[in-house]
Amino acid sequence: MSYLELYDGSLPVEQITNKWYKDFRLSNYGAIITFVGVVRDENGIDGLSFDIYEPILNSWFEAWSKKAKEKNAIVLMAHSRGDVLNHTSSYISAVCSPKRRVALELIDEFVEDFKASAPIWKYDIIDGKRVYAKDRSTAIKGAGILG
């Protein structure tokens, strides 16, 4: 079972979160904490579009899976490729853990590190065109000619 799922377009939130709950509710986890990111209607955009470099994303996620396992927890993640319109989801993550405190701390660290480190490039959709959202992007550590 893969704990990292990629979808084309907006995420089917209820399907994903219900599946995760069904898959892990009997695993003796005392906490299943889910974070759902929703594309906001701001700055005149119609939505966002995403490009993903999967080899680095898989490595990043695997490192997080190991970190979670050390705390007897697991991390789950779903992300969109391509266009995601306003008021729909492009990102869902979850942490399952026997202990509430572990899950609360890990979900916060995971989401923040995702925003800072995941190899996903974001574009605004404006009048049907993709415009690179440079002002809201974060350079990936070690990337680029001077990285």
Textual characterization of the structure:
The protein has 147 residues and is α+β, with helices and mostly antiparallel strands. The chain has one domain (4-134): Aldehyde Oxidoreductase, domain 3 (Alpha-Beta Complex). 32% of the residues lie in helices and 35% in strands. Strands 1, 2, 3, 4, 5, 6 and 7 form a 7-stranded mixed beta sheet that branches. The longest helix has 18 residues, at 100-117. The protein starts with a strand and ends in a 15-residue tail after the last strand. 27% of the residues are buried.
Give the DSSP E fraction (strand runs of 2 or more residues).
25-35%
CATH fold-level name: Aldehyde Oxidoreductase, domain 3
Shape, principal axes of CA atoms: globular
Overall residue-averaged pLDDT value: 92
Please report the distance between the alpha carbons of the first and last residues.
34 Å
